[in-house]
Specification:
Layout: E1 6-9, E2 13-16, H1 17-23, E3 29-36, E4 39-49, E5 64-72, E6 80-88, H2 93-117, H3 127-151
Antiparallel strand pairs: 1-2, 3-4, 4-5, 5-6
Helix pairs in contact: 2-3
């Protein structure tokens, strides 16, 4: 969401998202949204219940709320990001933050699909052809991901199989007599 997008609250009327975050005293909580390449991604987070001008006049569906989620940098509090949230009423902020943290892993998967599976290398003219290309690229990514997780042992050799489970039954050589001779 852009900082200059307009939101409204009952007490303030319509304001830009960044202006609302500065004017309204929001209770910020320091939480992690997941692990990143350099460790935990910790930010200050705040929620404000808002309405989106120009949206549905009746507001969100029954049992849901529209929220403005503000993420503020710990090292530089002047840097903030704003997210539009449509969630069930009563959803805890920890769950909303956890879901927002999934964004990075999803973007990483799309980058991998673009570079390794040709997701962005299409020259099609119809929706059907585009759809087939995307499905094929994402299926290839799923195959590569599953194969990598099954073969990744973390640098250690796989544990030996228990005796007797993975061994082939002994087959007699061709022409060999088995069992006891008939009398």
């Amino acid at each position: 969401m852009l900082a200059d997008e307009t939101v409204a609250t009952p007490g303030t009327g319509q304001l830009r998202a960044d202006v609302l975050a500065k004017r309204v005293p929001l209770p910020f909580e320091r939480r992690s949204c997941g692990d990143g390449t350099k460790g935990e991604r910790r930010y200050d987070w705040a929620l404000a219940e808002v309405t989106w001008p120009g949206g549905d006049q009746d507001g969100p569906r029954r049992g849901f709320v529209h929220l403005l989620l503000v993420r503020r940098s710990i090292s530089d509090p002047s840097k903030s990001a704003y997210f539009a949230v449509h969630a069930r009423t009563g959803t805890p902020i920890t769950e909303i933050i956890r879901v927002m943290g999934l964004r990075w892993s999803i973007e990483d998967r799309f980058e991998t699909a673009k570079s390794d599976c040709g997701l962005a290398h299409y020259e099609v003219r119809t929706w059907d052809a585009w759809h087939r290309h995307i499905i094929l690229a994402m299926t290839a990514l799923a195959f590569l991901t599953i194969t990598a997780t099954r073969t990744d042992t973390g640098g250690e050799p796989p544990p030996p199989a228990p005796a007797g489970e993975d061994e082939e039954p002994e087959m007699p050589e061709k022409g060999a007599v088995t069992g006891s001779p008939a009398s």
